């Protein structure tokens, strides 16, 4: 990643409170158009990192630049969208009034508001007071606010907490559009399953340190985690399949094998050599949850 493409650059970042070292030597870059998941156990330091990027607190050491600017500077704030976990709006305003206010503050024309409300699925509710809205609707309004002004960097803290599955899906679609428009998106979350297919890179924090930062396949490979292959044998063929391939017998007619990513093709060739003795095959590469457990499962106390 070159200096030009890094919308968010964090280098050797440390933060201490008294004797407690909350962040220790964090290096993290997010490029324009990239979606990075920021994972870690409770207290790992994710919110502290976000607060430092927003310029709400000062670092003890290291550097951060947001679109080339110092955190908290006017230029950095103009370049940043932030969606907190608990979005708070004026309850007596309607959604349209609230978003129009934000649009003005972001230097956007008020005519951008209606399409934006439509985009996040709030067109029908737009003229009702926010006080009557559900949590999911408020979260969508938060996302609409984050979409204003085409920011260079978006920091989303648990953006899907409290949302139903359809709303989660819609929200990730909007995040993907945001990234396609060139925004660098950092998503702090515990929702591993939903992040798996919806982010480009995974960064994992453990006790104030960044212990992993790569794509999902890259992390699987580094961690050496196995892909599980489950074969369902034809009637009466399970013993033969097991004898030829090894692994473990499961449920009478199935055999389960494990292999690393680089053994996968060779293993498939051996399986196809068994011809019609194998009726079905399922492959399960390491999930984000497996990877997360590998990097920080034992960090929980
Ligand atoms: N103002 C503060 N003074 C002292 N310690 C603090 C302060 N703010 C945060 N911490 C400590 O810093 C550590 C990291 O907290 P942080 O809120 O960044 O974690 P997190 O990864 O966001 O956790 P969660 O997933 O629970 O939101 C914790 O041990 C927390 O107690």
Automatic annotation (TrEMBL):
InterPro entries tied to this protein: AAA+_ATPase (IPR003593), ABC_transporter-like_ATP-bd (IPR003439), ABC_Transporter_VariousFunc (IPR051782), P-loop_NTPase (IPR027417)
Keywords: ATP-binding, Nucleotide-binding, Transport
A Pfam cross-reference name: ABC_tran
GO molecular function, one term: ATP binding
Membrane-spanning intervals of the chain: none
CDD domains per UniProt: ABC_DR_subfamily_A
SUPFAM superfamilies named in the record: P-loop containing nucleoside triphosphate hydrolases
Record carries keyword ATP-binding: yes
ABC transporter domain boundaries: 8-232
PROSITE patterns: ABC_TRANSPORTER_2
Record bears the keyword Transcription regulation: no
Matching SMART domains: AAA (SM00382)
Name listed for the protein in its UniProt record: Cu-processing system ATP-binding protein
Species: Roseovarius lutimaris
Taxonomic classification: Bacteria, Pseudomonadati, Pseudomonadota, Alphaproteobacteria, Rhodobacterales
């Amino acid at each position: 990643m070159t200096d030009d493409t890094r919308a968010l650059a964090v280098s050797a970042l440390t933060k201490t409170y008294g004797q407690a070292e909350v962040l220790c030597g964090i290096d993290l870059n997010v490029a324009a158009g990239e979606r990075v998941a920021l994972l870690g156990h409770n207290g790992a330091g994710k919110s502290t990192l976000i607060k430092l990027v927003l310029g709400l607190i000062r670092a003890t050491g290291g550097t951060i630049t947001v679109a080339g600017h110092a955190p908290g500077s006017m230029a950095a704030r103009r370049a940043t969208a932030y969606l907190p976990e608990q979005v708070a709006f004026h309850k007596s305003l309607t959604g349209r009034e609230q978003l129009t206010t934000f649009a003005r503050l972001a230097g956007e024309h008020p005519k951008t508001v209606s399409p934006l409300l439509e985009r996040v699925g709030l067109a029908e509710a737009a003229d009702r007071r926010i006080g009557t809205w559900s949590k999911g609707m408020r979260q969508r309004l938060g996302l609409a606010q984050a979409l204003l002004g085409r920011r260079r960097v978006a920091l989303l803290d648990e953006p899907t907490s409290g949302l139903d599955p359809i709303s989660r899906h819609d929200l990730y679609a909007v995040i993907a559009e945001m990234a396609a428009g060139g925004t660098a998106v950092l998503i702090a979350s515990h929702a591993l399953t939903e992040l798996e297919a919806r982010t480009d890179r995974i960064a994992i924090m453990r006790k104030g340190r960044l212990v992993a930062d790569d794509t999902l396949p890259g992390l699987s490979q580094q961690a050496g985690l196995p892909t599980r292959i489950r074969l369902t044998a034809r009637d009466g063929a399970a013993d033969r399949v097991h004898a030829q391939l090894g692994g473990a017998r499961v449920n009478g007619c199935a055999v389960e094998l494990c292999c690393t990513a680089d053994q996968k093709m060779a293993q498939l060739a051996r399986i196809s050599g068994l011809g019609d003795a194998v009726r079905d095959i399922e492959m399960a590469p390491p999930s984000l949850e497996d990877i997360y457990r590998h990097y920080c499962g034992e960090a929980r106390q």
